[in-house]
Every structure is written in structure tokens, then in C-alpha cells.
Design a protein that fits this description.
Layout (H helix, E strand, L loop, with lengths): L2 H7 L2 H7 L21 E3 L28 H6 L3 H17 L4 E3 L22 H17 L3 E7 L12 E3 L2 H8 L1 H8 L5 E4 L3 E2 L2 E2 L4 H11 L5 E4 L7 H7 L14 H8 L5 H21 L8 H15 L1 E5 L12 E4 L1 H4 L19 H5 L3 E4 L11 H13 L2 E7 L18 H13 L3 E6 L14 E6 L5 H9 L32 E3 L8 H6 L17 E8 L3 E3 L4 E9 L5 E11 L10 E10 L4 E8 L6 E3 L4 E3 L3 E10 L2 E11 L14 H5 L2 H13 L5 H7 L3 H10 L3 H12 L3 H4 L9
Bound molecules: beta-D-glucopyranose.
Length: 751
């Protein structure tokens, strides 16, 4: 099928109708031109293929299949190969099930721990989220199945998700909320994006030309087609004009009448419509050519994969005294309802129909004793369950409590309103750890919770929502068959009030203001030097790693060059394990607010005891840049940068300094209100101002002596704030030279 040929033969009516789906999950067929209907279905951590009645809230049945770890868990692997293995497996399953596009991955940034869909999203860090997404997308699409990166963009909460507006500044949008999508587009070459329900700064994403055309197509050069989130369309004609291609879901009412009217009335150009139709036709045609007729799926192999991946994702948060791994011969009690009925996925459109999720009790078999401990549907402590649990803990060498957020706490369509575990679980952990101090906690949930009992227990293992095999993977990790290697893709704050979005989540009056700007997650906690429960990038192992020999291939470079960074990592502990080498960049001095450090690369590497490997990274402009609204681009300010190698964002093991020269000069409009301080920050402004300060009557040089110690700094800071208007006139009156000729002009041009 040739999309251009087909387009030429289509009537205006056919084109208008083709911009909406046939039903809940399929595109429209055009029988007379041989265009078939193709199917898409939800993911992203499994296949929610509905053969019967469709819905987008996880209500009606879908096929029985395998549920892999959710995105919250996957990102904690800090491992691109985990994403690739998953992408391939899902791609093969889609081929076998005749699914042309999987609706995922979800790339929204974790702005608040309360977002009900955090389990479907990767990280608070845009670089990590982008790398995870790009790897998943490339692998999925290499199987001939399209990815659909969602929800584009700034859909970082569920409250008022279909009608609210996320209000934020340009720098925050470009530095925090878009780069993951940008990576999925530029590195992963995603075939599709799903526009979010919400508006950005008052314009709904489904009709946001800045987002769908200027940024996606013009800036990023993408030919991906854009699908609406289910029911996100407000005006189809405005949407198509803005760069939207396909409205979903379709159905009998999606005739395209409104588009037709708009074209006939001159409000929508036929060429805009053609462009949208062509993109959807190209997707259909690509699907046909990539179709593997003999595709099949081995679901047992998928289950083994789900177990292995869950093991790669778990984060050992705390392990004092080496309580874990459990030793052979120890008497172990598994306590808590989640040991028998694991929480492994969240609710809503990503919900996978799993015939048999594996619990930790089932996986451990006779090796452990079990006490239910709490009722997962209640907040209240049941004294009988608590007594049994304490008795089990006392009678065993080690107690392992399986705790976490109950199902009702995490769902599409609703945010949490606090960050606590149910009271009965907190009480259980406190009581059991008093009965037996050798207590470990295994946590389930898609987002951080407050941990009031943290100091009472020596070990905490976080499984997040680890997919249907989470019970088996927990047992693998607890008993040491698998060495934990996950690291946190988000900060765990001590309490909700510490989170930077606290005062502006979920907003009011239909609008949420991202007032914290770029200071999301660790960018905020580090800037404020705040204590946290667990920092971004944190994760322990049963072994230990040493970092040596950090080297840079140059000591200075321009922002057009690449910098190679290498470091040696040695497993100097007793067991095989996987290190996650994290590279952060710190701008030593900047004229704009910048985070203390930002993750710019990472690598997971497997090491046998005693083994050393060299890990290398290549950094380019973006690693040093911030988004500069004055030139609407990423911009490097010349100066010194520190390359930091860490095992977490707060465990920096090595650092080295490099000088980076920016090659772009900023436009610097000089007005009469430009201050001396602003001028001095610019190399050309510095020269301009030097003389003026000395001879200005505002310099008050005579007063500094009288004021004594510290007076120079005081005078200097007074001078910095003085605008040219206060200087120029007297200065000009004296000798009539250059200063006013700069006012109103651009001091230097922007290339
Ligand atoms: C969700 C999407 C999902 C779609 C289809 C919407 O409610 O926001 O993530 O892909 O439904 O089920």
C-alpha cells in the first residue's frame, strides 16, 4: 500500500472521517482503496488487549497475559537493557496478537509523590526517563510495532486531568517536562505520541500548535503521528490545524462532519487535513509491511522474563548489619497480607489481566512461616492479626514484613491526598520490630511513602509495583539468589510537606502552577540541602564497589566538542553484583539559578568479586547547558564544570573539573534599567562599565573608609544594583561618551 497514492484517491469526506478511529481500539478501514483497520491497545507493562467491549479505565476484560514490572520499578533498574528486553518481548506479543501499536510508555515527570499514576511513569529526572523510554521504544519498534509515548505533555497529576491547565515557564518546560519526550523522539524514533488531556498555559494539548508542531515537528524533526488521549479532543478542526492526527476513541459518531465543515468553511486548510491523513496512512502501511505472519508468543518464557526483570528493578534501601540476604537454616516469618496477595500493578487503563500472580509465600514454599498481620482493605489494626504476627516474629530468627500501598491508593483518575501507609501497617511494623529487631520490610507501591518506623528496622527492600512475578523476585532477592542492583529513580522525602510541589499540588480553580520551576525532585532537595529519607540514585547491594581513576580526555573544550569521561569500577566485596555508575554535572558558577547537580549519564555494569571494569561516557553540549529563554535554546555559559561520579546523587565518590567555553553569545538588550551588576556579568559589558564605576558620583568612594570592615563588599553590592539611568546622565554630562549609545541597542548579537 502506498500512502501517497491512497491519499490522492481519497474524497474529502473519506479524509475527514479517517482522522477518527473506527471504535475503541481500531483505525478506520477504507475498503474501496484496500486500507485495512489496525489495532492499538494499552500497555505499557503488558498487553491490555480487549476483544470484547472496550473501555479506557481498566473496567472490562482483556486477554489473560503477563504483567511485567511497572515503569516506577523499571526505571529503578537504571538499565537500558532491561527496557530493551521488555520492548522486544512486548513487540513479539503484539505481533502474535495482531496489535499494531502499544499505547506507551508513559513519560510524565514525577512532580509530586501523590500523582495517582506515578507507578506508570519513570522518574523525577528527565534524562533517566528519556533513556528508559528511548530504549523501550527502539526495542518495541524493532519488532515492527509502534510505540505511543504518552501523555504529551505536563500531565503530572490526575486531579482535573481532562480539563485543567498546567502552567509553567518556558525554561521549566524545556529542561524538565519535555526532554524525556525529546529523547523518545530523537533517540527512540517513536512512531507516535499521545497528546495529554490537559492544557499547558491555557491551551489544550490536543490543539496546542506550539507543542504538536513547533516543538515536535519543527524543533525535533519528528514525523511521528499524534493520537489524542482517549476523549481528549475539544475541537477536531482546531486539533488538526495544530498538528493532531488521529482522534481516539472513534465510533459511530466520529464521522468527520466537523472537520468537513471546517474545511468547507475555510477554517481548516485541506493541506493540514492531508498531512494528518498521510501520517495515519503511513502508520497503517508501515504496520502491514512489518507484519510477521508466523509470530507466536511463549508466555512461560515471558513469565520468566518478568521475574528476572523484577529482580533487576528492586532497590535495597537499607541493610544494616547485613541482615539480608537471609542465611540458610534461619527460621523466617513472612508477615503481612501482601506476602500472600502481592500488590504488583496499579489500576486504570494499564491494568493487565493476570491469571496467576505469584506471591512470596508461594515462591518460598516451606522455607517460611506466614502470618497475615493486617487486613489490606482496612486502616485499623486487628488485634488478633497483630498478636499472631508478633508471635511469629518472636518464634523466628528473622521477620520479613510485606507492606505497601493498598490497591485503592493508586489508580489512574485519582491522586493520593497523603503520603502515608495505612495505620495498621505502620503499627504492625513498629510492633513486630519491637518483638524481633531482626526485621526486614519489603515495600510494594508505585510511589514513595512516609516511613515513620525507618529507624526501627535494619533492612528495607523496595519492590515498587514489580509485576506478576514480584513474589518470586522478592524471594530471589531476600535469599540472595539475586543481588539487588536497583537504584531510586526518585527521591523519597521524609514527609510530604518537604516536596517542592507541596504548596501547588494539585492546584486550584482548574489550574496548577509549577511554581517550583526546574527545582523538581533532587534538584530541589539538594539546592535546599534538605535531609531526605532516601536520595535520588540510592541503592545498596550485597557486595560493595570502589571507584578509582576518573579521567577526562581534555581539560577544556567548547560546547561543540565532546568530552570523554572514564572511570574504573571494582567489585571489592564478596559476591557478584551490578554497579550503577552515575555521572552528574555541576556548574560551578552561573548567572542563572541552576541545580547543584544534574544526572547526565549512567551505566549499569556486572562485576564478579575482585573484577574491575572501565566505564566510559561521552558528554556533549546538553550535559552543560540550561534552557535560555533569551535565545529560546539550550545554552552553555562559559566556565568551570565539575564532573561527578557517584553511587547516588548524595554519594559522590570522585570528581574532576573541566573548563567549557560556550560558542553562542547571548543577546543582551541594554536599557536604562540595566544594572551595573548585569553588565558586569557579560564580558563586553565588563569593559564598558569599568571606567564608569570609578568616576561616577554614585560610587560614594569617600564613604567606604568611614564604614570600616565589610564596607567594600557593601558598596560593591550597592553599585551592582544601580541602573544605568542613575549613572548615564551625570556621566554623559561630563564627557559625552559611549554609554547612552548602548542603551536600547543589543550590546552583542545572538548568533
Ligand atoms: C489514558 C491513556 C490510555 C487511554 C486508552 C486514557 O484514559 O489516559 O493512558 O492509553 O485511556 O485506554
Amino acid at each position: 500500500m502506498n500512502p501517497n497514492d491512497i491519499l490522492r484517491q481519497m474524497t474529502l469526506e473519506e479524509k475527514a472521517a479517517f482522522c477518527s478511529g473506527r471504535d475503541f481500539w481500531r483505525t478506520k478501514a477504507i475498503d474501496r482503496l484496500g486500507v485495512p483497520s489496525v489495532m492499538m491497545c494499552d500497555g505499557p507493562h503488558g498487553l491490555r488487549k480487549q476483544e470484547g467491549e472496550g473501555d479506557h479505565l481498566g473496567i472490562n476484560k482483556s486477554i489473560e497475559t503477563v504483567c511485567y514490572p511497572t515503569a516506577a520499578a523499571l526505571a529503578s533498574s537504571f538499565d537500558r537493557s532491561v527496557m530493551e528486553r521488555l520492548g522486544h518481548a512486548l513487540g513479539q506479543e503484539c505481533q502474535a496478537e495482531n496489535v499494531a501499536m502499544l499505547l506507551g510508555p508513559g513519560l510524565n515527570i514525577k512532580r509530586s509523590p501523590l500523582c495517582g499514576r506515578n507507578f506508570e511513569y519513570f522518574s523525577e529526572d528527565p534524562y533517566l526517563a528519556g533513556e528508559m523510554a528511548a530504549s523501550y521504544v527502539s526495542a518495541l519498534q524493532s519488532e515492527g510495532v509502534a510505540a505511543c509515548c504518552k501523555h504529551f505533555a505536563c500531565n503530572d497529576q490526575e486531579t482535573l486531568r481532562m480539563s485543567g491547565t498546567s502552567n509553567l515557564d518556558e525554561r521549566t518546560l524545556r529542561e524538565i517536562y519535555l526532554p524525556a519526550f525529546e529523547a523518545a523522539v530523537k533517540k527512540g524514533h517513536t512512531r507516535s505520541l499521545m497528546c495529554a488531556y490537559n492544557a499547558i498555559n491555557g491551551t489544550f494539548c490536543a490543539e496546542n500548535k506550539t507543542l504538536l508542531t513547533d516543538i515536535l515537528r519543527t524543533d525535533w524533526g519528528s514525523d511521528a503521528f499524534v493520537v489524542t488521549d482517549w476523549g481528549a479532543v475539544k475541537s477536531r478542526a482546531r486539533g488538526v490545524a495544530a498538528g493532531l492526527d488521529l482522534e481516539m476513541p472513534g465510533g459511530p459518531n466520529a464521522t468527520g462532519e466537523d472537520i468537513l465543515r471546517a474545511v468547507r468553511g475555510g477554517e481548516l486548510s485541506e493541506s493540514d487535513l492531508d498531512r494528518a491523513v498521510l501520517r495515519v496512512l503511513t502508520f497503517v502501511s508501515d504496520t502491514l509491511s512489518a507484519k510477521k505472519a508466523d509470530a507466536s508468543i511463549d508466555r512461560d518464557a515471558c513469565r520468566r522474563l518478568a521475574r528476572a526483570l523484577s529482580g533487576e528493578c528492586a532497590v535495597l534501601m537499607k541493610n544494616e548489619g547485613g541482615l539480608l540476604p537471609l542465611r540458610p537454616g534461619q527460621k523466617v516469618a513472612f508477615i503481612g497480607e501482601f506476602a500472600a496477595k502481592p500488590r504488583y500493578q496499579g489500576a486504570g487503563s494499564s491494568h493487565i489481566n493476570v491469571p496467576h500472580p505469584v506471591s512470596a509465600i508461594e515462591a518460598a514454599g516451606d522455607a517460611v512461616f506466614y502470618a497475615r498481620g493486617y487486613d489490606a482493605h482496612s486502616n485499623d489494626t486487628d488485634p488478633a492479626l497483630l498478636a499472631q504476627a508478633m508471635e511469629a516474629a518472636r518464634s523466628c530468627d528473622v521477620a520479613v514484613i510485606f507492606a505497601g500501598l493498598p490497591d485503592a491508593f493508586e489508580s489512574e483518575g485519582a491522586d493520593r491526598d497523603h503520603m502515608r501507609l495505612p495505620d495498621n501497617q505502620n503499627e504492625l511494623i513498629a510492633a513486630v520490630s519491637a518483638a524481633n529487631p531482626r526485621t526486614a520490610v519489603v515495600l510494594h507501591g508505585g510511589s514513595p511513602v512516609e516511613l515513620p518506623w525507618l529507624s526501627l528496622v535494619p533492612s528495607v527492600l523496595c519492590m515498587y509495583l514489580g509485576g506478576e512475578q514480584v513474589g518470586a523476585a522478592s524471594v530471589d532477592l531476600l535469599f540472595g539468589a539475586v543481588n539487588p542492583s536497583g537504584h531510586l529513580a526518585e527521591t523519597w522525602p521524609l514527609r510530604l510537606q518537604d516536596n517542592p510541589s507541596y504548596l501547588n499540588f494539585p492546584g486550584e480553580d482548574g489550574a496548577v502552577t509549577y511554581a517550583e520551576g526546574i527545582f523538581v525532585g533532587y534538584r530541589y532537595y539538594d539546592k535546599k540541602e534538605m535531609p531526605v529519607a532516601f536520595c535520588f540514585g540510592h541503592g545498596l547491594s550485597y557486595t560493595h564497589f570502589a571507584y578509582t581513576n576518573l579521567r577526562l580526555d581534555k581539560s577544556s573544550l567548547t560546547d561543540r566538542d565532546a568530552l570523554t569521561v572514564s572511570v574504573d569500577v571494582t567489585n571489592d566485596g564478596p559476591l557478584p553484583g551490578k554497579a550503577v555508575v552515575q555521572l552528574y554535572v555541576r556548574d560551578v558558577e552561573s548567572s542563572v539559578r541552576r541545580p547543584v547537580r544534574e544526572l547526565r549519564d549512567f551505566e549499569k555494569t556486572a562485576l564478579a568479586p575482585g573484577q574491575t571494569k572501565t566505564v566510559s561516557f561521552t558528554l556533549s553540549k546538553r550535559a552543560f547547558a540550561y534552557w535560555e529563554p533569551r535565545c529560546h535554546d539550550f545554552f552553555v555559559e562559559s566556565g568551570e564544570f565539575v564532573i561527578e561520579i557517584g553511587e547516588s546523587s548524595r554519594d559522590i565518590r570522585l570528581c574532576a573539573t573541566v573548563q567549557v567555553q560556550g560558542t553562542v553569545e547571548l543577546t543582551f538588550p541594554v536599557t536604562e534599567y540595566t544594572t551595573i551588576g548585569q553588565l558586569l556579568k557579560h564580558p563586553k559589558g565588563k569593559a564598558l562599565v569599568a571606567d564608569m564605576i570609578q568616576s561616577s558620583p554614585m560610587s560614594h568612594a569617600d564613604q567606604t573608609d568611614a564604614m570600616g570592615e565589610g564596607s567594600e563588599r557593601l558598596m560593591e553590592s550597592m553599585m551592582m544594583g544601580i541602573p544605568l539611568s542613575a549613572l548615564a546622565r551625570p556621566f554623559l554630562a561630563e564627557d559625552g561618551i559611549f554609554i547612552c549609545s548602548g542603551i536600547g541597542d543589543n550590546l552583542v548579537g545572538y548568533e
